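hi! just following up on the protien thing from before. the input was this:
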Amino acid sequence: RRMDRIGKIMVSAVRLALDDSGLDLRKEDPDRMGISIGTGLGSSDTVDQFFRSLLKEGPVGAQPLLFQTAVPNAITSHCAIEYGIKGVNITFSHKETSTEMAMAYAYHLLKEGRADVLLAGGGDELSEPLYHVYSMLGALSPGKGKGSEGMRPFDRDRNGIVPGEGSGILVLEALEHAEKRGARIYAEIGGVGLSGSTDGVLRYDLKGDSIARTMSLAAKGAVRVDFISAAANSTPELDRAETSAIQKVFGERTKEISVSSLKSMIGEFDGSGGIRACGLALSLYQGVIPPTIGTEHLDPQGDLNVVLGQSQKKEIKSALLNGCANGGSNISLWFKRFA
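and the predicted 3d structure came back as:
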């Protein structure tokens, strides 16, 4: 009864992930099972309600039941309580790289043998105050009234973002544990790359150097990568920075690599990485790359093999999931097809 909207979204996503995985919680050691969640803002609607009453009525107007769910880690705790998870319980909040950070941390915990299973991912909700902030910043499509509204990553006519919301959760397991229980394995994570830039609090690395560094670190150099799930969000700054980074890392191979931005379908929000990671795992498993919808005329300043129009069937041996946050945080996760 005291779970707010984003809490319900997250708990539901965990339930869907567990059902799909076939994991029987009754047979698992709860102390060896953890949860790592990323969220940019947690419950922005609850925070808004709490501070509205506080500012209107002073301290007597503060609602304690709202306060306990206003902190970002409340959604992680809701999930842990709901499913009896007693191992690692951690929340990451780092703008648009929040969920990718959560998955990277879970990956390292499993590599170090500190857990058997990690539920990793995250999400965010779209609220009235958040929409208002985006609007006041002039970030929303159609920008200053030019062109039609819509998400068009890598398009010459892009004009801003369309905000989205949602949650995506991966069930990450140590290989031995997954094979022992006969799990269906969609993909494996082979590496993580992290980097930062100092271009400004609300700026991306426009040259793409730090983004290139994350991809190189994740994939351990310019090894064979067949697909990149891009962070591109229909803004000229990030789209062009990521394009430049891809070209710097892969050089002559750039045109061989399929690129797509799932944000064209789900919109832009801080916790989008969880859904995009689920989509990438399915791409590896099924050999299908989703298109970047809405994009029709590629930016002439870029020269990427962007999947347009309809999904593309392709054998994918490995792929990169990119995450970039304005303010200088970049991350890339290298996924491999399980063989």
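Residues 200 and 272 are 22 Å apart (CA to CA).
The mean pLDDT is 93.
cheers
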